[in-house]
Amino acid sequence: MTISLIWAQSRGGVIGADGVIPWHVSEDAKHFRALTAGGAVVMGRKTWDSLPPRFRPLPGRRNIVVTRDAVWCADGAIRAVSLDDALALADDLPVWVIGGAQIYALAMPLADTLEVTEIETAAEGDAFAPAIDDAWAVATREPETGWLTAGSGERYRFIHYRRR
Ligand code: NAP
Ligand code: VY7
Questions:
Q1: Greatest pairwise CA separation for the chain in angstroms
Q2: What pLDDT is stored for residue 29 in this prediction?
Q3: Model confidence pLDDT, tens digit, residues 92-131
Q4: Separation of 141 CA from ligand 1 center, angstroms?
Q5: Which pLDDT band, with edges at 50, 70 and 90, does 63 fall under?
Q6: How much is the average pLDDT of 30-53?
Q7: Lower Cβ count inside 10 Å, N or C end of the chain?
Q8: Each residue of 2-20: pLDDT tens digit?
Q9: Residue 122 region, left (φ>0) first, then alpha (ψ -120 to 50), else beta?
């Protein structure tokens, strides 16, 4: 089973503010949807809550939600009591850990790859990406140099990391 973490962050490592993502870059949402298609998406309960109801469950993926609440349930979601439980519930599907900060921190030691979108925004927030230490090497970048520009004006780039 491969375990990948996927997130989008600001320059300062912000991933969320007041329970939502504080920017809209549709090119990143499209990248996220394409990479996670057909896999299991593992998320914290707060990230499930952050999805607009019309996008829950994320279509075409097994939606696994980690919560300590023994009676939590939602249509289209599978409840997991721990990250290990979530991984077991993924069976042999590729695992995409899709957030938020608490779940990334738990999953980082188990991850094989990281898919990070850097967004050149100064947005402030209260949820942060995990630190990427020197156990990780950049495998590929898109673009190889510089930035892409979103229709909404933000500059962004995709960075794929693998373990050294
Ligand atoms: P989170 O990681 O999504 O969810 C936290 C919840 O997960 C906890 O409240 C608890 O649920 C459950 N949990 C945590 N540790 C657990 C454990 N060891 N065992 C069982 N359950 C556990 O919340 P967050 O860190 O606040 O992140 C949410 C923020 O991240 C939002 O702003 C969201 O928009 C943002 N986000 C950004 C991106 C991005 O790519 N930019 C992606 C995803 C999310 P219960 O309280 O129900 O017990
Ligand atoms: C989370 C949404 C949030 C608000 C509105 C629409 C990277 C992202 C995430 C999580 C971007 C989100 C959405 C976008 C995805 C659509 C459904 C609607 C789909 C992450 N790099 N980017 N994220 N949706 N973990 N990593 O925008 O979702 O996939 O079907």
A1: 48
A2: 98
A3: 999 999 999 999 999 999 999 999 999 999 999 999 999 9
A4: 27
A5: very high
A6: 98
A7: C
A8: 999 999 999 999 999 999 9
A9: alpha
Mode of pairing for the β-strands spanning 127-128 and 14-16: antiparallel
C-alpha 69 to ligand 2 mean position (Å):
24
Q: Which residues line ligand 2 (CB under 6 A)?
A: 6-8, 21, 28-29, 32-33, 51-52, 55, 58-59, 98-99, 117
- The count of C-alpha atoms lying within 13 angstroms of the C-alpha of 83, restricted to the half-sphere facing its C-beta, is 18
Contacts of 64 (CB under 8 A, 6+ apart): 40, 41, 42, 43, 77, 78, 80, 86, 89, 90
Q: Which of 32, 36, 121 to mutate to test the pocket of ligand 2 (most atoms within 8 A of CB)?
A: 32
Which residue is closest in CA terms to ligand 1's atom 21?
67
